[in-house]
Please model this.
Amino acid sequence: MDSLSDKAGFLIVANLIKYAIGFLVPVAMVRLLNQHDYGTYQQVLLIGNAVIGVMVLGIPTSIYYFHHHTERGEQPVLALQTGVLLAGAGLIAGLVVALMSPWLAVRMNNPALQSLLHIYALYIGLFIACEYFMHWLVSENRYRAALGWESADTFMRATVLLLPLWLGFELTGVVIAAAVYAAVRFSARTGFIWRTVRGAVTGWTRHTFARSQLRYSIPLGLTSCVGLINGLADRVLVAAYFSPAQFAIYAVGALEIPLDVIFQTSVANVLRATFPRLIREGNMTELVQVWRETVRKLALVVLPSFAFLLTFSHEFVVLLFTGDYAGSAGVFRIYLFLMPLQILVLSVIPQAFGRTRINLYLALISMIINLVLCVALIDIIGFYGAALSTVSVAYLMSGIYLRVAARLIGVRAMELLPLAALTRIGLSAAAAAVCAQLFRPASSIPSVDFIVPGMVFAIAYFAIAALLGAFTVGDRRLARRWILKLIPAYSGPRTL
Model:
């Protein structure tokens, strides 16, 4: 268990750096762009994220499965053939975006989009072409390398997005810089993979994985496509129904705190690389133990974050995005209710069993319900309805996923949840939120209004959680081990 926690820890640190900086980039951009231009930027991102999510076709994720089902000598071929498949997908994606840019500009009520998408199409194609890189490093058990590459990539991306604005090049400069960044990223990652595997590549024509990979990954790709439509449905509809400035207000409020990609995605990648072996061995007892411990550890971070941000959501939005976006706080509060679901890594289990069509069927059901409900609620209560629909459907589908996962493993659904531990963590978070509310300052300084209660909350949460027994001996050992990894000086001076 500790080994899995350590492996996930490297990916969590990488994602923490990646999304902490990525989280701060919009905070800077709202101060450098007016609402119309920031709304345009969000529309460009919306289109790019949608196309990338669809056109990777689930191929990167297939590496976790095939890496455990191939001989060691065949694995370099798997890496190179995966790169070729994704390069083709990226080329198609870039061409489609460039050709559809006039239509997209009309549909989103924003003529400025057309010229920007012509440039951004290059970014999209190159980004997709090397999107298997991190999955390969994880499958090869190279977690330290994954941390280094992801960190360097993050700092470079933040620089190329903000530097043009600081130099006065406005939004067009940002999009050009993004294309340059994608070209450098593609060259560096592809060069590293080739230098790593070229000496081991034999039998290129004898060992072909493309057909098997596509059979495995196309259901995942379709699932991602449907899930992406589902996840972006509210933003797409708001972008189509409202002006760019109104979309900017909604996009800020629809900010998902990236604990899912920092913690959940990191853990999910480790589980994808671990569960197939346990299933092959028929070791369902250990699989359930790993799953329950994963849920508990994620809850230690996710549930207190949810409780604090829900209590101080207005202060959080104003602190990050200024008072001009205070109207986003209502949407933000609704979106926050997605956070508790981040303790569950439900989609991994059908994938580990090779039953990727289950993910597709559930994603289709979710998408249909969400689209219908989203349109209906927008007509009734405006863009708040889009947010309510997204959250409601997410809870419905999580319940269905939990039952499906339990049936595959052969246990009752409630056996997958460490209910006693979750109760202790939830009570600790709620009590800490009450303590922080009692110390809410009456100043007009956004940083003070948020940071002071945050300090009170953190102290209260750790104290109450310790009293209630929410932290285990293993948690304390893991925390100490990672402190020593990240801050070697913590262990004290060493004698020579």
About this structure: The chain has 20 helices and no strands. The chain has two domains: 2-417, 420-496. The CA atoms of residues 50 and 435 lie 41 Å apart. Residues 420-496 form one domain.
